[in-house]
Design a protein that fits this description.
Blueprint lengths: L1 H18 L12 E8 L2 E8 L23 E9 L3 E3 L2 E3 L2 E8 L5 E6 L15 E7 L2 E18 L2 E18 L2 H12 L7 H10 L5 H13 L4 H15 L2 H15 L5 H17 L4
Helix pairs in contact: 3-4, 4-5, 5-6, 5-7, 6-7
């Protein structure tokens, strides 16, 4: 009897294991997507799940108009900004947010909410909203089967967060202030031992700032880097030419051409001969 009870007990213990099923790997209906996009001086991260139409109507059907939507499928859609951005003039500090929307035929509402742990919008609290902004949807000629969120139209200080699904596209413009950040970096770095002469000077050149300090920085670079002096003289020539100081630019470009002749790398030698010739032509050299 004891033996029978032991077998019965053992059988009961083994039953769940015997009934365990092999786990299958099945294509998800709404696959998760993660996007890391370099933007301004940092980045924008997006994490969301992408639902598909599968014969349904997205907005006004599967997603009711006028109600808060998770902006995707499964868990809440999340966006992280690596630095402060502005949305419709409203400042949004660096950090992670739930990206919610209220779709409507004529006007959408984009919401950034502090609660990034919520599933769907079942526990959504408007009191945790950081910003709410309106956006006009546009109608697409052909339906997009799968929903997408992308960072598009990238500029040094601006980008668009673009939502596309079915026949609807909505754009949320984002604005950053990289100049404030970079100028603070330059000011601080120039107090240190390893001064970023080249990067700082090139930033001044590319953003249309006063080039006088930038030319001085290339002079310092040339002093400290005799093996790369041809590079410093080339950039000094570019800056001088942009200032309209053509004769000084011609002298600097010719000095660069003289020094680059000792470069043992034939590829870079040919490149900087060509680049200096372009500066000479722009400065009107004969």
């Amino acid at each position: 009897m004891k033996h029978a009870l032991f077998i019965l007990a053992t059988g009961l213990l083994l039953a769940p294991a015997a009934q365990a099923q092999t786990k299958l790997t099945i294509p998800p209906l709404s696959p998760t997507t993660r996007i890391h996009q370099n933007f301004s001086t940092s980045y924008i991260d997006l994490t969301y799940s992408r639902p598909s139409l599968r014969g349904r109507v997205a907005f006004g059907g599967l997603v009711p108009n006028g109600t808060v939507w998770r902006t995707g499928a499964n868990t809440i859609t999340k966006v992280r900004f690596g630095e402060e951005v502005k949305i419709n003039g409203q400042a949004v500090p660096a950090g992670a947010y739930a990206l919610l929307t209220i779709p409507d035929a004529k006007e959408w509402t984009f919401i950034l909410n502090r609660d990034t742990a919520q599933w769907g919008t079942y526990e959504y609290k408007q009191a945790l909203d950081v910003v709410r902004v309106k956006a006009k949807p546009t109608k697409l000629a052909a339906p997009a089967e799968t929903m997408s969120l992308n960072v598009e139209n990238l500029k040094p200080n601006a980008a668009d967060l673009v939502l596309t699904w079915d026949r609807t596209q909505v754009v949320l413009p984002l604005v950053a202030d990289p100049d404030r950040i970079v100028m603070a970096q330059i000011e601080q770095a120039m107090k240190g031992e390893k001064k970023p002469y080249v990067q700082a000077a090139q930033y001044y050149y590319n953003t249309g700032k006063d080039l006088t300090p930038a030319i001085g920085w290339f002079d310092e670079f040339i002093k400290g880097n005799p093996e790369s002096a041809y590079y410093g003289y080339y950039w000094k020539a570019k800056l001088l030419q942009k200032q309209g100081k053509n004769q000084d630019a011609i002298a600097a470009a010719r000095k660069s051409l003289e020094l680059v002749q000792t470069d043992k790398n034939e590829v870079s030698k040919a490149e900087y001969i060509h680049l200096n010739q372009e500066v000479l032509a722009a400065a009107g050299a004969k």
